[in-house]
Design a protein that fits this description.
Elements: H1 3-9, E1 11-15, E2 31-37, H2 46-55, E3 65-70, H3 76-95, H4 108-128
Antiparallel strand pairs: 1-2, 2-3
EC number: 3.1.1.29
InterPro entries: Pep_chain_release_fac_I, Pep_chain_release_fac_I_sf
GO molecular function, one term: ribosome binding
């Protein structure tokens, strides 16, 4: 993944935001919406695109776009920086390949310890019972 190319491919759109700001909110477009075209991206290889299609299937639109919004701050520039960070973090986390799990067995001493503790517990419980009188 080439981050510089990826950022140049992003499409930004400023929207009027809700939240704090009073009447100022009605005049300025501080919320930022970023659109990333996954299908036509030059920053990602085909294998990376396929991996993202599988992992982000719920976040990708039918046109193959990833759309994120940020309206947390009253500054359009800060919102733009936050949404870029979020998108890059989202892509990086979903591009990681999970390690294969190796099967392991408990060591001989661990097995012996477990069996010994079971015997001690069983003996303890056996001694709690009243003796049998025949």
């Amino acid at each position: 993944m080439i981050i510089d190319t990826l950022i140049s491919e992003l499409v930004f759109k400023a929207i009027r935001s809700s939240g704090p700001g009073g009447q100022h909110v009605n005049k300025t477009a501080s919320k930022v919406e970023v659109t990333f075209d996954l299908e036509n991206s030059q920053a990602l290889s085909e294998t990376e695109k396929e991996r993202l299609r599988l992992k982000l299937s719920s976040k990708i639109t039918t046109e193959g776009l990833i759309v994120l919004q940020c309206g947390e701050t009253r500054s359009q520039h800060k919102n733009k920086a936050i949404v870029i960070e979020r998108l890059i973090a989202l892509l990086k986390t979903n591009l990681k390949v999970a390690k294969k799990r190796k099967k392991t067995k408990p060591s001989k001493s661990a097995i012996e310890r477990r069996l010994k503790s079971k015997k001690v517990t069983a003996l303890k419980k056996q001694n709690r019972k009243p003796p049998k009188i025949d």
